[in-house]
Specification:
The structure is a single chain. It is built from four helices and three strands. It is mainly alpha-helical and 152 residues long. The chain has a domain of 90 residues. Strands 2-1-3 form a three-stranded antiparallel β-sheet. The longest helix has 83 residues. It is rod-shaped. The N and C termini lie far apart (149 Å). 7% of the residues are buried.
């Protein structure tokens, strides 16, 4: 009676099913209820301590490996979530880098545009100065021409 209680309590505390892998025969993992594992463990070791069934990893002489199914599933889910987050993070980084590059391109474009405007402004100013100079020279020549005519 006491044995079945131990089995039941171990089953309840550990949440049901476990993977059982027999290393010696090289079988693929099979799903078993904890009660089967407890009886298997007892057969091999002769021990009635159900607490150690849960953690047989510290007993390398026992040819079974018991891993909790839910923990495996949880680990897989966590891994998937991390991979997704990693991909999201990577995509976001790439997007930010593209945005930065785009901003830099726009800035350079604005700077070049300003430089062109300044150059054009300088050209226009020089052109204007030349034209004014020519006008003043023409006016001076006309004045000189009038003065000559007046002298004659």
């Amino acid at each position: 009676m006491e044995e079945s209680m131990n089995t039941r309590s171990a089953e309840e505390s550990q949440g049901g099913f476990f993977w059982l892998l027999q290393r010696s025969q090289g079988e693929s993992p099979q799903l078993h209820p904890i009660s089967v594992l407890v009886s298997f463990y007892r057969e091999i070791t002769g021990s009635h301590d159900t607490a150690t069934v849960v953690n047989t990893s510290h007993l390398p002489s026992v040819p079974i490996l018991i891993v909790r199914k839910r923990e495996r599933e949880r680990e897989r889910e966590i891994k998937k979530v991390k991979e997704k987050e990693g991909k999201k993070g990577k995509k976001e980084k790439e997007r930010k880098e593209r945005n930065k590059a785009g901003k830099k391109r726009k800035e350079r474009k604005k700077e070049r545009k300003k430089e062109r405007k300044e150059k054009e402004k300088g050209r226009q100013e020089r052109k204007g100065r030349k034209e004014r100079k020519k006008k003043t020279e023409r006016k001076e020549k006309e004045k000189e021409g009038k003065k000559r005519k007046e002298r004659k």
